[in-house]
Amino acid sequence: MIELISPTRCTGCNICVSVCPMDVFQPTGGGRAEGAAPVIARQSDCQTCFLCEAHCPDDALYVAPDAETVTGITEEAVAAAGLFGSYRRAIGWTAAHRENRSADQTFRLLAPH
Amino acid sequence: MANVPGAPVSSSAASLDLETDVLILGGGPAGTWAAIAAATGGARTILADKGFCGTSGATAASGTTLWYVDPDPAKRAAAKASREGLGGHLADHGWMDRVLDRTHAAVGQLADWGYPFPRDADGRERRVSVQGPEYMRLMRRRVKQAGVTILDHCPALELLVDDSGAVAGAVGLQRQKGGRWTVRAKAVVIATGGCAFLSKALGCNVLTGDGLLMAAEAGADLSGMEFSNAYAIAPAFGSVTKTLLYQWASFTRADGEAIPGAASKGGRSVIARVLTTEPVYARLDRAEPELWAAMRQAQPNFFLPFDRAGIDPFTQRFPVTLRLEGTVRGTGGLRLVDGTCATAVPGLFAAGDAATREPICGGFTGGGSHNAAWAMSTGHWAGLGAADHARALGVRALGNGTRTLRRAGGAGLQDRPRGGHGAAVDAGTLTRAVQAEVFPYDLNYFRTEEGLTGSLGRLDRLWADAAGAMPASADTVLRVREAAAMLATARWMYRSALARTESRGMHRRIDHAALDPAQRHLLTVGGLDEVHVSTRPAPVRADPVRLDRAEAGRELAA
Ligand SMILES: Cc1cc2nc3c(=O)[nH]c(=O)nc-3n(C[C@H](O)[C@H](O)[C@H](O)COP(=O)(O)OP(=O)(O)OC[C@H]3O[C@@H](n4cnc5c(N)ncnc54)[C@H](O)[C@@H]3O)c2cc1C
Ligand code: SF4
Ligand code: SF4
Prior knowledge:
The structure holds 2 protein chains of 2 kinds.
Chain A: E1 2-5, H1 15-19, E2 25-26, H2 31-34, E3 39-40, H3 51-55, E4 61-63, H4 75-80, H5 86-90, H6 106-109
Antiparallel strand pairs in A: 1-4, 2-3
Chain B: E1 16-25, H1 29-40, E2 45-48, H2 58-62, E3 64-65, H3 73-81, H4 93-112, E4 129-130, H5 132-145, E5 149-151, E6 156-161, E7 167-173, E8 180-190, H6 210-217, E9 222-223, E10 230-235, E11 250-252, H7 268-275, E12 280-283, H8 289-298, H9 300-309, E13 318-326, E14 333-334, E15 348-350, H10 358-361, H11 370-393, E16 406-407, H12 427-438, H13 441-445, H14 449-468, H15 477-499, E17 521-526, E18 532-537, H16 549-552
Parallel strand pairs in B: 1-2, 1-8, 2-5, 8-15
Antiparallel strand pairs in B: 3-4, 6-7, 6-16, 7-8, 9-14, 9-17, 10-13, 11-12, 12-13, 17-18
Helix pairs in contact in B: 1-5, 1-11, 4-11, 6-15, 8-9, 12-15, 14-15
The site of one iron/sulfur cluster has 14 residues of chain A, from helix 1.
Organism (chain A): Azospirillum melinis
Protein name (chain A): 4Fe-4S dicluster domain-containing protein
InterPro entries (chain A): 4Fe4S_Fe-S-bd, 4Fe4S_Fe_S_CS, Fe-S_Ferredoxin
């Protein structure tokens, strides 16, 4: 489930508000102009799809793998484990990892047809 | 906002009022391919998604393998034959050929548009799979470039029909902007995906069968709804229901004892049986370490739960569960009446998981490829079909004076003349009641006449209550409609399952464990207050000599 938005990393672009398929986030008054982070307004609606993380340009969100429960993990713990932005790097959506976009090895795992 | 039965549409009630040639409901693969085809053919096109076109739906979160087969006759024949038996010999060779051709073209198009397909050691581009976020981000871009108007966070609630009964648009909510939307259209494509009953399977909680309910309210029927019990393996704590890599798993009890026969393919039912009484653990210890890196690169999302929970899935055991994916990786859905993906109702088309996939895989899908190919192909044809239909209607009538439109929606939306009992439906309570009938392996994975009859009695009573209830308030109507759609879907599933007194495809009857050659037919199901099932002949076999005899006595695989 979505666990946190880091107020220090977030720039208030509100992309997560738009892209979350479950409409979990709510923009706050300030928005991008003031760099204000949106809030996690409907946490229990989260479907643990990790797509807000994939689309956040500032690696400011963390989705815990637990689908049913809130873990309460802290920003420090996420940062210490190097998990901020880890999905974006894996799919090649950061400048430094672009080669991962075309790294899909599924063809090696499928029986030939 | 209550509407009395058949109330005409008043434009003042909606906060956004648009007119178009083609309206697409749903923006996953099927909806985006449909939108591009319609708009490229010159039709004015609007696409409305419950969530966000580009992240919403099963593919965006999951990624898929593709039924991408070179147009070499031997390879094509093998591809078609490989699923015949598993699908219960219900697929149609003509449809398979068309879908193989169309998928090959569509995937080529993706490459031309810049999808970053990987290359193998020989430098050859490999096009057998797509990563969900990448694929659907590209599709959104192409939809916009085609000139389509996208309405994000705009779930459709009900269809509009004209006085001849033809579908003429839809009404929905603007979830983030507030208020309603009304789109009058000459043709509508239902591409709302399948129904996974809010099981939290990966990317599936937007998929509550809404389009099936809306279409049925306008008079469409469905097919193959007995093939609706796809369950997928996931770590017990998580949402990632990706199953490909479990072919390298061993499955054990809490004490570490191996579970005989348990496997992702061909032994998933064994896992289900054990899970009814005790936890099951998995470990990907059949994968050689040389393959580990490739597995990570193939499915980055598969590893998210493990990396974040601090589990090494290759060396450490973790508890697993089976989450219901319902019709998402089942094959049931709206019945198509021709190759343009028209439904039984004029002006209404269907594509992707919202349409029955029996034509290409009969009663079984799961393990990949066909669903994605079906979504690409039927999306394209439905978009073209809808655009042609709109063109044929011409300038005649979009409801502005010449055509009176009425709302087709029922449960949760309108007072019905049956002495409504005053209370509105509580979406949470109804959802949990439906889940209690469709989640348990005893009821849905392992079906019996007794179990199905008991469930149907309870589901029918829930339907009578929901259909007679007061309309939902503006802030609950989406959830109420979703609950009603799941309820309707569950009733079509179980009525069909009761009617098929054999085991075929993924439909498994404990009291009729064998395949019955006399039931090589398709089941049409429809209706809301009264659900009715009828049979239609299965497609003519390409090779009538290879009869089902070999299958007849066999306990079904998987
Ligand atoms: C974990 C997982 C793995 C899979 N792997 C494979 C695979 O390897 N190979 C394969 O072929 N298939 C696979 N599938 C199946 C494949 O993802 C689907 O067949 C495919 O996504 C269907 O596309 P679609 O466009 O019909 O539906 P979806 O992609 O589910 O999109 C449906 C869209 O409709 C929208 N919607 C829903 N209700 C409404 C409403 N009321 N109003 C407006 N919009 C609405 C949703 O928000 C969503 O955007 C997998 C599925 C899952 C869950
Ligand atoms: S997408 Fe990231 S940076 Fe933008 S508002 Fe959301 S959390 Fe903040
Ligand atoms: S994980 Fe998915 S559902 Fe949850 S907040 Fe992020 S985008 Fe929304």
